[in-house]
Amino acid sequence: LLLTIHPEFWRRFAATGDHQGAQGPGIRYSANVAAYSNLRMAAAVHQSSMEPGATLTARVLLTEYGAPFKGTATVSAELLRPDGQEVLVNLLPVAGEPLVRRILRWLRAHGVTDAVLNLHHLPHTLTGAVGDGSDLGVRVRYSWEDPVLGSAGGPKRAIPLLAAAEFLIVNGDTLTNLDLAPLVASHRRSDALVTMAVVPNSEPQKYSGLAVDEEGCVTGVVPRGSAQPSYHFFGVQLVNVEAFAAAPAGVPCETVAQLYPALIANRRGAVRAFHADAEYHDIGTPADYLETSLR
């Protein structure tokens, strides 16, 4: 995060009186902000999420001898954990165990014996926590992404490691008690290339949703904030390898935004919804993490 201070902006900001002392609380990150000069600084930092690359909104007041600084200054800020280390969302502990290991245990309980984890940011922390998965009863291998390839590009790269005609894709920041057997059976009974586990979208102001017809075919995306009823996809899906045939290799690509609309346009029923009777916890923000940890 690099901020260039504009003198006129900070004169207006100082006039508001809205400049408390440095603030940087948070579950995942704290914020260290420092000024290397003879100036005095007050800063407030708001963190939007726990993901690497999360947006920080920083408000900084620089003063010189008690008056707003009128020159040009550069302020730098670092994202750090309270102990000075960084951690991935899927390594956050939930009831004492990293989220990724809980997900792998859940998969193993439903008969999954092979998993491929995508790597990018801080790869050594993920491989160090999971290893080869032998202690969990799962053979774990890793697919390296540089740059990050997205929700379609990532699975596309991992396909050679899978050597399977169909496979599950599970979000790394979601905990659920979904029974996978009915999802698999529903997918295999249909002619779908993709079957997505969904629940009614009870928070349309927070999440966009999927439009699903009476036969369970996904027909499109309902924007966040819409009054149209929709279903929330909570991060578990079963896909056929052919679904990713059109995804470009080594190029960032998204499923819901790019790949799946093309599949839907090409054939009705290519993407279907599985109406799940399950709980899920989406750990995408500090508040979500706290709520999940307290359950």
How does this structure look, described?
The chain is α+β, with helices and mostly antiparallel strands and 295 residues long. Helix content is 25%, strand content 31%. The chain is built from 7 helices and 18 strands. It has helices at residues 7-16, 99-109, 123-130, 150-162, 180-189, 255-266, 286-294, and strands at residues 2-4, 30-34, 40-47, 56-64, 67-68, 74-80, 93-94, 97-98, 114-119, 139-144, 166-170, 174-176, 194-200, 209-212, 218-222, 231-240, 271-275, 280-282. It has a 4-stranded mixed beta sheet. A 3-stranded antiparallel beta sheet has the order 1-6-2, with no helix packed on it. The longest helix is centred in the middle third of the chain and has 13 residues, at 150-162. The chain is globular, with a radius of gyration of 23 Å. Residues 1-5 and 18-31 have low confidence and may be disordered.
